[in-house]
Amino acid sequence: MPIDFDKYKEFVIDKYGSRKLAHWFTIWIMKYSVFLDNNINEFKERDTNRFVAYLQNQNNIDAWQIEQAKKALDMLNQFMVSPCPVMNHSGIKSNSTSDSSFSPLVLNSYSKSESQRENLSLKSALHKMRSEIRVRHYSIRTERTYEMWIRRFVKFISMKPLHKINTDDINKFLSYLAVKRQVAASTQNQALNAIVFFCKHVL
Q1: Contact at 8 Å (CB) between 85 and 79?
Q2: Which has the higher per-residue pLDDT, 86 or 26?
């Protein structure tokens, strides 16, 4: 049963009082959900251990990020055992109560003016993403794959202004890939990685 990511995020905010931290915790749980083929019926230590081991084998994930992922998983355990944790079959809340003026995925936006973000076109955003990828010495295959996923994602959200992308958009896209397109978990995770990179380093 997919987790209601919005409710989980609200749970983390309530515990830590930090939207930034809640955002990244939610991203890790989204990755965890994809890792388990979107089937988290209960919190199992063997599943979390497998996920942490998977993260440790990734060359582009630092030790501090793994520790953050572990804390996110610990919060997931608390969330799932708390009274009446809210879940639904789609993993998407139909009427979000989140602040619409807050784009949880665009953390770098705090250092940019609103006009700068609004004027970022898809063409210029993809150009910037290529530069960010090359600075990090990612392979040309990764560059092309990330660009393909970003184009598909932006098309899916009907060419929505990039600065308005939010968690709900990502949830819907991942659900679409899993339910409608029936892609493998690894493919879904690849899409999520591309979107997270785009939001973190480009927007």
Answers
A1: yes
A2: 26
DSSP string computed for 57-82: T-TT--HHHHHHHHHHHHHHHHHHHS
Looking at the domain covering 1-91, what would its CATH class be?
A: mainly alpha
Q: Which two tokens stand for residue 21?
A: 């931290």
Domain 111-203 class, CATH top level: mainly alpha
Q: Where are the alpha helices (DSSP H) in 36-162?
A: 45-56, 63-81, 114-118, 122-135, 140-156
Query: How far apart, in whole angstroms, are the C-alpha atoms of residue 98 and residue 89?
Result: 20
Task: Tell me how far apart the alpha carbons of residues 109 and 86 are, in angstroms, rounded to a whole number.
Answer: 30
Tell me: the pLDDT tens digits for 9-65?
888 988 888 888 888 898 898 888 888 776 676 778 888 999 999 899 888 788 999
Nearest CA among 203, 140, 139 for reference residue 166: 203
3-class secondary structure, 42? coil
- Does this chain's domain 1-91 share its CATH topology with 111-203? yes
Whole-prediction pTM: 0.54
CA end-to-end span of the chain, whole Å? 31
For the chain, the structural domain boundaries read 1-91, 111-203
Return the structure tokens found at 42. 């209960």
What tokens appear for 164 in the block? 């308005």
CA–CA dist 150, 153 (Å, integer): 5
* Residues 199 and 117: beta-carbon distance below 8 Å: no
Residue 133 structure tokens: 């990828």
